[in-house]
Amino acid sequence: MKNKINYVDICCGLNWGDEAKGKIVSYLSKIGDYNFVCRWSGGNNAGHTIYKNGIKYKTHLIPSGIFYDIPSIIGPDCVVNVNAFFEEVNYLKSNGFNTNLIFISPKAHVVTKDHITEDKDKLFKTQGTTAKGIAPCYKDKYARKGLLAKNIPEFKDYLWDEKLYGNILCEGAQGFWLDINYGNYPYVTSSNTLPYGACSLGFPPQYIRHIYGATKIYDTRSGIDPFFPENLLEDKDLLLLVKVGEEFGTTTGRMRKTNWLNLDKLVDAVKISGTTMMLMSKVDVVKKINIYKLYHNASLINFENFDVMKTYIDKILKEKCPLLENITYSEKNELD
Ligand code: IMO
Ligand code: MG
Question: Which backbone phi and psi does 303 adopt, to 5 degrees?
Fold first, then answer.
């Protein structure tokens, strides 16, 4: 039935972005039965890496459903730069994907050249933003003087009819601690990264079935944040994580600041986001360097091996997060 929503699954990041959301969404697109895959927030500040048939693809704006021929929607609370959008459309087209399935909400806001210039000249320097014009665009949106996608002639063939039905998958961008309300303000992004933000796509919250929370077994941060001081890059074990984990930004190429998993933060993110299925990736990285540490109750704990650490994480999360149904640990290539 083309007018009835069946269920909505949401994948959100539980940390500071870069938690393999793209990979998880493309995996769910492959194995699931979705009619739509939708982005609900942000713009091309995101950097999602996915593998299909052993080939690596990167997207910044277009939902990962496109890799599995599922209509892919850029929602009304997203911001879209015209050039970046067409660059990505052409990239996907030249790789053989069906770009007729890409749609932009008429209500999405347009990131202009001036937004990008302002971001580059100011916020990039003080906050380490991705310099894609995100904050200046949302600033104009909330000042009610923004430019809407429906007013851009180049977007004419891509405008979404705003109808959702069947089974829907929502692809988060950024992460819980980059959220405009929950992050370490002003070291945040300018959008709602929590699952409730996905309702802006036009479905009631009662239809939400699973909330997939994406996390890593260690923490990373691209951009400036006093919670991740620069001297983290001087710690030789943490540098090992950067190298073995290949922690360089998909969007910016910058080396990510890396730290041991902060379990206190993770518990809060799982609880408040309403995560029902948690996926913790990059387990192979800590196994490879053979160091198992995390912060809990603000102190650093050292574990003998992965199994002991896993048992500890499982126990704390199960105790503190009543809505959490399932925890999956994953290693490289397991979700491809
Ligand atoms: P994905 O979807 C990691 C960070 C930036 C900066 C702050 C604000 O790939 O997980 P912005 O350009 O949004 O104004 O920058 O947020 N940031 C991300 N970090 N992954 C992302 O997206 C990010 N999007 C923004 O580094 O600190
Ligand atoms: Mg990223």
Answer: -110, 155
Q: Whose CA is nearest to atom 10 of ligand 1?
A: 17
Question: Element (H or E) spanning 309, and its range?
Answer: helix 306-320
Give Cβ neighbours of residue 122 (< 8 Å, ≥ 6 apart).
none
Using most ligand atoms within 8 A of CB, pick from 16, 18, 45 the residue to mutate for ligand 1. 45
Rg (CA), the chain: 19
Q: Residue 1 pLDDT > 70, yes or no?
A: no
Give the strand pairing for 5-13 and 166-171.
Answer: parallel
- Distance between alpha carbon 307 and the CA centroid of its chain, in Å? 28
Neighbouring residues of 263: CB distance < 8 A, sequence distance ≥ 6? 294, 295, 296, 313, 316
Q: Which residue is listed with tokens 């300018």?
A: 190
Distance 319 CA to ligand 1 centre (A): 31
Tokens of 269: 């993110």
**Which atom belonging to ligand 1 lies closest to the Cα atom of 47?**
9
**Does the reported pTM lie above 0.90?**
yes
- The 10s digit of each residue's pLDDT in 19-41 is 999 999 999 999 999 999 999 99
Cα torsion 15, 18, 24, 26 to 10°: value is 150
Report CA-CA distances (Å) from 48 to 40, 108, 170, 195, 241.
14, 20, 14, 18, 20
Q: Which residue's CA is minimally distant from atom 11 of ligand 1? A: 129
